[in-house]
Write a structure and sequence with these properties.
Distance between the termini: 33 Å
Bound molecules: flavin-adenine dinucleotide
Strand order of the largest sheet: 9-8-18-19-20-17-21
Radius of gyration: 23 Å
Structural class: alpha/beta
Largest sheet: 7 strands, mixed
Strand content: 15-25%
Length: 503
């Protein structure tokens, strides 16, 4: 393979190579398109900072480092930017989201980024009643979110759920978001699963049901999989420097994390950011190896390009970072941390209809269910309601049960659920799209890499601690809105400051 050396900012040939050629330019412009083979020409590039991962975290880091006058190259494995944020084309020509979609109050950094890029927002459709489907009975009810108002369950269950919610919020206030492992009761809370705690506290079955649906909806993991300390950290993280996090903010639509959507789809944000960054983003370049050489410079080897850099920012989820070969080996604590943070299991199923027919029935498209493949859903129609789109989450155990099925099998199961929740009209969509994150090679699940018991207290300190010139970003490293787009942006801003100060 011939290798040419291209000094940065030299000429159009280099620009073409960095972007992976015309194919990459097209994909940056549209955000969709068919997958293309990586540019097989191998080039060498020298920069100050190599950023691994072109999700919101990596792109934000590149924006700030470039603004600080550093030479940066973002290496993105996929043929598109955005990572866990992706727009999907619908058969009717519309756009919907396959990954991160909603933003809400206190998510200040994603909001500021979107404003800066001119990406407009609109309120999530939230007019009308939710549907509770429980014990084979369908009950529309007026509320907001899973726990926000009064779901039609027994009074004892409601009182128990409210008390548990208040207790969780109270305990979360004692968890420092920058270092949850230093909470006074960190050891005690990290040695039990959220399920163990729920069994002891959500003692009324209907209350436990509500808390369990909240858990799978927020984490796409079952209560048995999560450390109680991690759940408390996540609640604490759902706020900002002046507003403490609450469970309600995680689960609610109006005034919560599901309040607002982006016009044109959430991937507009990373697409526009990458367009601004231009030739500092190289697509179809999965990083395979990071080597520290004599003099402390790093060699980052990706398909089609070898980059030398003084600093490396790893902006991929921890389990994906563990698939990169580091030489010399990373410290044991860092590697074992990455071994122990699994991705949740998640998919989205979007059925498209000529009209959002459920609105005429007084429904807002949101469901809480104790059965089925889809157990929570949203109205994903465009702002003008010119067609209808029902988006159903497939989460945790449900997703795992569906990972190996054909798309036709998943579609049949999802539509059966939609008919149960919204009536016979749901049986005949004009289009259907399915996004299964567990089967995506450069995500392997979502929405977040979560901590089972024992991980935060033993390994948490390694989450953000740089290893020589290697720095860690990604939503999982964020103190606020960990697991969300806002957390990804915050992590990019934090790591850029860290690197700029070190260079
Ligand atoms: C179904 C789903 C629904 C969600 N809903 C919401 C929501 O409504 N609101 C919200 O705020 N958040 C939501 N999220 C979470 C949100 O999408 C993520 O928190 C955020 O996008 C993470 O950004 P990131 O940059 O940290 O990581 P990622 O987006 O994962 O970016 C990492 C990038 O690194 C790349 N990569 C991986 N390995 C390599 C390698 N070896 N070399 C080079 N590149 C590599 C990947 O391709 C990817 O582009 C959701 C996520 C999912 C999956």
């Amino acid at each position: 393979m011939p290798r040419e050396r291209h000094p940065l900012n030299k000429d159009l040939t280099r620009r073409h190579a960095l972007l992976g050629g015309a194919a990459a330019t097209t994909l940056l412009a549209t955000g969709t398109g068919t997958a293309r083979a990586a540019d097989t020409r191998s080039v060498d590039v020298d920069v100050d900072v190599a950023v691994i991962g072109g999700g919101l975290a990596g792109l934000t880091a590149a924006r700030d480092l470039t603004a600080a006058g550093k030479k940066v190259l973002v290496l993105e494995a996929r043929d598109r930017v955005g990572g866990r944020v992706v727009n999907l084309k619908l058969p009717n020509g519309g756009t919907t989201e396959g990954g991160g979609e909603f933003i809400g109050p206190t998510q200040d950094r994603i909001r500021a980024l979107a404003d800066d890029l001119g990406v407009e927002t609109f309120p999530t459709y939230n007019t009308g009643k939710n549907v509770l489907y429980k014990d084979g009975k369908r009950t529309p009810y007026a509320t907001d979110g899973l726990l926000g108002s009064v779901p039609p369950i027994d009074a004892a269950g409601l009182a128990n759920a409210a008390a548990v919610q208040a207790l969780l919020d109270d305990m979360a206030k004692k968890v420092p978001v920058e270092a949850p492992w230093t909470a006074p009761k960190a050891e005690e809370w990290d040695r039990q699963t959220f399920e163990t705690w729920l069994r002891a506290n959500a003692v009324i079955p209907s209350a436990r049901f509500l808390l369990e649906v909240a858990c799978t909806s927020v984490f796409s993991a079952q209560p048995r999989e999560l450390s109680l300390l991690y759940v408390l950290f996540y609640i604490a993280s759902a706020g900002n420097e002046s507003t403490p996090g609450t469970l309600e903010r995680l689960t609610e639509t109006a005034d919560g994390a599901q309040a607002t959507r982006f016009v044109g789809g959430s991937q507009q944000v990373p697409l526009k950011l990458a367009a601004r960054l231009g030739d500092t983003v190289r697509l179809s370049s999965p990083v395979r190896k990071v080597t520290r050489g004599a003099g402390g410079r790093y060699t980052v080897t990706a398909d089609g390009v070898t980059v030398t850099a003084s600093r490396v920012v790893v902006a991929v989820p921890p389990p994906l970072a563990a698939r990169i070969d580091f030489d010399p080996l990373l410290p044991a604590a860092r590697d074992q941390l990455a071994q122990r943070l699994p991705m949740g299991s998640i998919g989205k199923a979007i059925a498209v209809y000529d009209t959002p027919f459920w609105r005429a029935d007084g429904l807002n498209g949101q469901v809480v269910s104790d059965t089925g493949t889809v157990r929570s859903s949203f109205d994903n129609s465009p702002p003008d309601g010119s067609y209808g789109a029902l988006m159903g989450f497939i989460e945790a155990d449900r997703m795992r049960a569906n990972d190996g099925l054909s798309e036709a099998e998943v579609k049949a199961a999802v539509l059966k659920d939609y008919v149960t929740y919204f009536g016979d009209k749901a049986a005949s969509p004009t289009g259907f799209v399915l996004q299964r994150w567990d089967n995506e090679g450069f995500s392997r699940g979502g929405p977040v890499a979560y901590a089972p018991p024992g991980v935060l207290t033993q390994y948490g300190a390694a989450l953000r601690t740089p290893v020589g010139g290697i720095h860690w970003a990604g939503t999982e490293t964020s103190a606020y809105w960990c697991g969300y787009m806002d957390g990804a942006v915050r992590s990019g801003e934090r790591v850029a400051k860290e690197v700029a100060a070190a260079l």
